[in-house]
Amino acid sequence: MRKKKAPKRFVQPDPKFGEVLVTQFVNRLMWEGRKATAYNVFYDAIALVEERTKENGLEVWRKALQTVGPSVEVKTKRIGGANFQIPIEVRGDRKISIAIKWIITYSRDRNGKSMADKLASEIVAASKGEGASFKKKEDTHRMAEANKAFAHFSKF
Predict the structure, then answer these.
(1) pLDDT digit string, tens, across residues 91-119
(2) Domain chopping of the chain, boundaries
């Protein structure tokens, strides 16, 4: 490694809930620098979640992030001319960032009128252990389990 490691950037907490995790989620949700629009979409989605589940929307969202976050993933490593899928443990901050990415990606693919409606549907489904983002976690775990025989190669 020739250069020093990039410093970890810290984000400001969001204005409504005072949570750094909400800001990270909104930054990932944002398109073309429209942060105010992204905040409105997120807050509307949380309100829809509260309306549908009759629970605290922020707690349901946190539960969805915990449910979707994978504990193992596979990384490809080339050894002796062959590519192996090697299962590795996922760090805590990466687990959350993967969960955020999957929830937003699969909520964009959903059918619905507005992005807030699609995001709320995906959050509710993920908190119950359903939906496309949860299925992605299950597929990732299944792939890691299938390639457990190559775990001794893990020197990342």
Answers:
(1) 989 999 999 999 999 999 988 889 999 99
(2) 20-69+91-145
Taking Cα atoms as reference points, which of 17, 20, 8 lies closest to residue 96? 20
**Which 3 state secondary structure label does DSSP give 155?**
coil
Residue 152: CB atoms within 10 A of its CB come to: 8
SS3 string of 63-108? HHHHHHCCCEEEEEEEECCEEEEEEEECCHHHHHHHHHHHHHHHHH
pLDDT tens digits along 40-60:
999 999 999 999 999 999 999
CA–CA dist 13, 113 (Å, integer): 29
- CATH code of the domain made up of 20-69+91-145: 1.10.455.10
Q: Tell me the CB-side half-sphere exposure of residue 28, using CA atoms within 13 A.
A: 19
The span from the CA of 136 to the CA of 100, in Å, is 12
Three-state DSSP at 153 gives helix
